[in-house]
Amino acid sequence: MGINELLFLLFIDLQSIYRKNISIDKLTFPQLIALYIIPFNGIEMSLLSKKIGVEISTLSRLINGLERKKLVNRIPDKKDKRIIRICLSSNSDVIKDRLEKQIDKIGDVIESKIKPSQKDNFNNVLSKLHWEIAKALLNNDVV
Predict the structure, then answer these.
(1) Which helix (H) or strand (E) holds 122?
(2) Each residue of 62-97: pLDDT tens digit?
(3) Is the pLDDT of residue 143 over 70?
(4) Is residue 42 helix, strand or coil?
């Protein structure tokens, strides 16, 4: 099996695991992904759209739902009102903490299946994979 197939199967399996095991206060899975990605100092809407991999219009609907739940705020740029920054509200702290604990729990279960002698190598391979994917996205090498 080639890397192309393995990457796609890994994507499907990980998505399935996370969707089945993460559930918080009537938030959708895409909303939880957005909350996880948004840093404490906020992120521009266009960059968040790229990170999540959705169009701005789709992201706007997702952010509208998070705003209604008082978990994020839209803050227009002072110089250019077209630039919108999404910031976490203080209400999101509890949700993010619960989300991170659920993610950690999944990771702990997966990590427990790896032999201690293989953990460093496994971590290095995953880090390298993540780095290469992040670079490809940044450089628009991936369609």
Answers:
(1) helix 119-138
(2) 999 999 999 999 999 888 888 999 999 999 999 999
(3) no
(4) coil
Read off the pTM.
Answer: 0.86
Strand order in the sheet with 43-44: 43-44, 84-88, 72-76
Beta bridge partners, 88, equal 72
Yes or no: say if 34 and 121 are a contact pair by the CB < 8 Å rule.
no
Residues 24, 40: Cα–Cα separation, whole Å? 19
CA distances from 20 to 16, 24, 69, 141 (A): 6, 12, 22, 31
The pair of structure tokens assigned to 124 is: 């290095």
Convert the pLDDT of each residue in 13-56 to its tens digit.
999 999 999 999 899 999 999 999 999 899 999 999 988 989 99
Residue pair 111/119 in contact (Cβ under 8 Å)? The answer is yes
Beta carbons within 8 Å of 75's beta carbon, 6+ residues apart? 42, 84, 85, 86, 87
Position 31 scores a pLDDT of: 95
